[in-house]
Amino acid sequence: MPRLIPIGEAAQALGVSLDTLRRWDREGRVETERDARGRRLVSVDEVQRLGGHMPTRAGDAFSARNRFEGVVESVEVTGVVAQVVIQAGPYQVVSIVTRDAVEELGLAPGVPAVATVKATSVMIGRT
User: Which helix (H) or strand (E) covers residue 14, if one does?
Assistant: First the structure.
């Protein structure tokens, strides 16, 4: 029998917000179970399948509050740089990245992406 943990602990292990993990459950991106009181539980195996783990190197972990998951709204490439706009819920995140990064990540309007804010920098990655 797999070890089950509360959804809040699973969200923390995955580096996402509780609301994000609940949304993933509704969308079928994560498998959950309900206990007798109706609370969501996630197996440790499922958390590991989704890439959740304890950080092993400095910089591996991000707090949930500095991640903005959303959808690419626009990409404007000019020379070697590009402006990427992500609509993340009520927030619009704009970042200047290299043209190479846009191509490597396959960023285009409609593509799911995550903006990770670190100090005054924004790092963009696909979700």
Answer: helix 7-14
* Residue range(s) defining the domain that contains residue 72: 65-126
In this prediction the pTM is 0.47
What tokens were used for 59?
């910089």
Tokens encoding 84 = 């990427």
Predicted local distance difference test score (pLDDT) of residue 73: 96
Q: Chain-wide mean pLDDT for the chain?
A: 83
Phi, psi of 66 (to 5 degrees): -110, 20
CA separation, residue 123 to residues 6, 56, 99, 116 (Å):
29, 20, 14, 5
**Does residue 9 surpass a pLDDT of 70?**
yes
Q: How far apart are CA 2 and CA 94, in angstroms?
A: 41
- With CA atoms as reference, report the closest residue to 112 among 82, 61, 69: 69
| Total of domains in the chain | 2
